[in-house]
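Re: Re: ligand-bound prediction request (bumping)

Still looking for help on this. To restate: I need the protein modeled with NAP bound, output as structure tokens. Inputs repeated here so nobody has to scroll up.
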Amino acid sequence: MNEPRIAVIGAGISGICMGVALRRNGFRHFTIYEKAAGYGGTWHANTYPGLTCDVPSRYYQFTFAMNPDWSRLYSAGSEIRDYLAATARAHGLHEHTIFGAEVTAAEFADDGWTLTTSGGAVERFDFVLCATGFLHRPRRPDIAGLDDFAGVLVHSARWDHGVDLTGRRVGVIGTGSTGTQLVSELAGRVARVVMFQRTPQWILPTVNRAYSDLTKGVYRRFPRLGGLAYRMNRAVFGIFSRGLTHPGRVRRLIQWVVLRNLRTVRDETLRAKLTPDYQAMCKRLVVSDRFYEVVQRPDVELVTESIDHVQDSGVVTADGTLHELDVLVLATGFDSHAYMRPMTVTGTAGRTLDAAWAAGPRAFEGVMLPGFPNLFMLIGPHSPFANHPLTAVAEAQAARIVSWLCRWRAGEFTTVAPTAAATDRFNARMRAAAPDTVWTTGCQSWYLGKDGLPELWPWSPSAYEKLIRSAPDPVDYELGPPVPSEK
Ligand code: NAP
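Reply:
Sorry for the wait, this slipped through. Here it is.
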């Protein structure tokens, strides 16, 4: 039997999930390239104070590695990173993983891929599986004078733990999940927090309770409970996702909940500043049990005047006010449309990924690209589903990829790629469904592409999983000739 040589790029959630699926299906000739020094992807790179996952841990985990020992309903980033690393090691992925190896180029020729790493290594593979995620390129805002700042300037995704924040005045630019978590955590620990808000966010209230030793013991003793909790969470998220993709009762209910939460802000002027002018969930919903309480503290200031520029001593807003700061944090998110870039990817006829995606990232069913044979993506375009956990999506995509690899191993084809027509049809269907989604109801967000339409799958996550777990329709693919047995 032919054994494919496989490269997995990235050792975050989807890379680990893919690696486990490969081993479980008997594939042994694979290498996982990871640019960082450890497992975890975004959970390895992000270490800012207060980092917490906003999906319950009993759902934000792999079904093949249920952890009974989660410490809280919503776990801290470090706990998730440790869980991912432990899962990778438990499944033998350390034998396959090269850390500190960034793949800089991937080029298709002669029915295979040539990869080049930043260290200069060059390797040939039959398949490339991109598990690069979409939250790995920090976005630096286009604000004049950022480099003139004389204090400490840091992006939330590149936290500098050497900086002592005690007694410091800290500015945070951004009001997304990251900015909200940072402000909630820093208030009271530093001299003063100034939050620069361009757009207010709706906040879904929650309670992040800790699990007692007794609860953990019960989950350990009765492993099926983990599966039950997973399915219950899945059902709740299924209802939630209905609100994302269809107008109606769920959307109205969530709007009512976030509005009630906002009313816990007592000061009317502050409440008005914190009130969004768009529907809840249009931007990715922020989940917090503390933010509104914290933002009312006397040592926290919410600045809504737009930023004019940054100078050595702080941030100057459009009204001419200088906000003096010692530390300035950019909680300004990521270039979420980059996916595997800045890696240079070159498919058939020398066509690059940048050229193929000139109008924005387009993929077939979220996992493949026309003109890029034997290249698969996990958590690629159209697969992030707002607040839905990516663990579940990655498991379904890994299963689809394995099914293609098994067919290659059986000698059915040398190369596989979706047709351009199938990809266009898939994207046209998605775009036709976009107006029903909450993401098109009048806000700016990283969900939207260059044409103003969401790049996200516009139906339920379970519909996606059903699609991707079903047998591929042969008419959608171009297959190369069978694999010669000596290959
Ligand atoms: P984000 O949601 O993209 O938010 C970026 C923030 O920066 C926004 O408030 C944006 O304002 C602001 N901003 C950007 N450029 C600016 C400028 N020039 N001047 C002023 N403000 C500016 O980024 P994020 O909070 O880092 O979150 C990114 C994603 O990471 C999330 O959506 C989520 O998927 C993930 N995340 C998840 C968790 C979790 O718990 N699972 C936690 C943290 C992050 P505008 O709104 O006006 O653009």
